[in-house]
Amino acid sequence: MDVKEFFENMPFADLLGIEVTTAEDGHAEGYIEMHENLSWNSDRVVAHGGVTFTLADTVGGAALVSMVDQPVPTIDMRINYLESGTGDLRAEADVIREGSGVGVVNVEVYAEDRTRVADARGVYKTE
To answer: How many C-alpha atoms does 70 have within 13 Å on its Cβ side?
Structure first.
């Protein structure tokens, strides 16, 4: 399975403009270009929490897909918002466990200036 192509054809990720740039050996990276329609603030562009969450979930899933070579539905995703997400957002994800039936992935989300915006842990179904 071509992981990047799989995520390029995901309608919701496409709607938001999420791009998975790297996905191999349990590691993935991706980004989203911010614009006013993704903001929670009408005075300046600041990522809505749902945008940050969706980026983390998508890139986390891509990291695991790169190992198991099949779609992985999300079972649970926990996220800690650390800072406001201003500018384009980037995410980096690493698989920390690929077990029988589930995989666990850690994800870090960064703002354009490399400020860490959020930490997340995703659990995905692998069978």
So the answer is: 9
Phi first, then psi, for residue 84 (nearest 5°) are -70, 140
Report the alpha-carbon distance of residue 23 to residue 17 in Å, rounded: 17
Sequence-distant (6+) residues with CB within 8 A of 111 are 83, 84, 85, 86, 87, 88, 89, 117
- Residue at 93: amino acid letter: A
* Model confidence pLDDT, tens digit, residues 42-96: 777 677 777 899 999 999 999 999 999 999 999 999 999 998 887 889 999 999 9
Spatial distance between the Cα atoms of 119 and 99, rounded to a whole number of angstroms:
22
Residue pLDDT, tens place only, 4-16: 777 778 888 888 8
